[in-house]
Amino acid sequence: MMLVESGDDLIAIDCGLMFPDDELPGIDHVIPDFTYALERRTGFRAVVLTHGHEDHIGALPYLLRELPVPVYGTPLTLALVAERLREHGLLETADLRSMRPRDRIQAGVFGIEPIRVTHSIADGIGLAIDTPAGTIVHTGDFKLDPSPLDGEAPDYRRFAELGERGVAVLCSDSTNVDRPGHTRSEVEVGQALGGRFDVATGRIIVATFASHIHRIQQVLTLAARTDRRVALLGMSMQRNVTIAADLGYLQVPPAIVVPLEELASLPARQQVILSTGSQGEPHSALALMAAGEHKYVKVERGDLVIISARVIPGHERTIGRVVNALYRLGAEVLYEDNAFVHVSGHASQDDLKLMMSLTRPRYFVPVHGEYRHLLGHARLAESVGIAPERVFLMEDGMGLELSTADARVVGGFPAGRVLVDGKSVGDIGAVVLRDRQLLAEDGLIAVSVAFDKSGVVAAGPEIASRGFVYVKENELLMEELKKAVLAALAERDPDAPFDRELVGATVRSAVRHFVNQRFRRKPVVLPIVLEV
Ligand SMILES: [Zn+2]
Ligand SMILES: [Zn+2]
Question: How far is the CA of 51 from the centre of ligand 2 (A)?
């Protein structure tokens, strides 16, 4: 989420979420810190969305729950947002406002104009934001595909006109800055898939992102061309196809999409399954098929599985597992590493340079990427002649203060990741995460001891364990552990007053010591001290 502020007016560009990595066990989503925006709620004019990917719209429900601010986006983006808001029970109260490329809207002092760009989801836009200090151009996520499927080519002319008129700041997508040349067109991947469809003699299973409307379009078109029918697998695939077809973003050839039962009654060579799970996500349709656990689809010899997607970093192992399993079942598998089955939705170096030369910005701010990508993009800008002192490498929590005369970096904005787990938003901190990691690594031992009024052990210790050892099969060991606890308790000063916390600490350290001596392991130890 990027904020633009002038006087009392504030707008947000996009409001996305991230999915947690291995270091955040049990966390569902990571969302931005809204503190700064919410403190300025009276001047918070709008959220403007560039496209419908999760990393751009996913956190909206959490923001709108706090403040029902108007949300602008193109029709497909808003339709995807509406679906999310419905899930959160927020659709009724949401103020969604449709916008189209070149149709300018006003939000407080800001004049905002959407500009068509191409990306791996249809209906993406960049933005030109007129502010009292000059025009900011934000590319959104983009590639420069001169021949997109829907004919909605990037609006080169508008970017160039803005460049003529004067652009103060260009914020540009850094994702693919490491890739030389131009990003290939979506049409090329369609041709490559077409070659596979032409020669395949059995069933074809294609896994891709449910939001990649144009990839889905190509599969539907190819199926029609090669006399096949298509069944859709996965909730999000079915939902997005319906949304995109209703809005006219997807042309579904007549009678091409059929229910799975109907598909199964056709000869194998007429069957196409279009599925989610291109990242090997554990409960996705593709993963279930690979594991032989899908209710209706059994993968078998003769099947061709095409994973038409990029491997998102962090998913290499899960995808690898799925690919191995599919091969074991006898299928042939095509994926990024062994075939041309995907093109990126982000601009490569030459495209990025073209964007800079079209807009000719006074200042440049690389956005959307890890630090290395932002740095690479900053260097790329310098290589095409933007002076280093006009390039700003900014991280979360930093801001650019822009006037008609100059620009400088200011810091200290509240920013950071807020963790969402079920209904908990932001109340899971470092301690809880550390416990989860320890529990996952070495398990838990709970020891309960009951004391009478005079502080003498009345019952126990009783020991329970999860993920450490199986207590029932280790009774001898448990007896030794109990003895160690009792021995530690016996060393207490008999005249000292009974202190629950102190007794708990004694139990904990006795268990830790024993376990460490025996096993060199560090389970979480939970002492339960009862007074009877
Ligand atoms: Zn995107
Ligand atoms: Zn993105």
Answer: 8
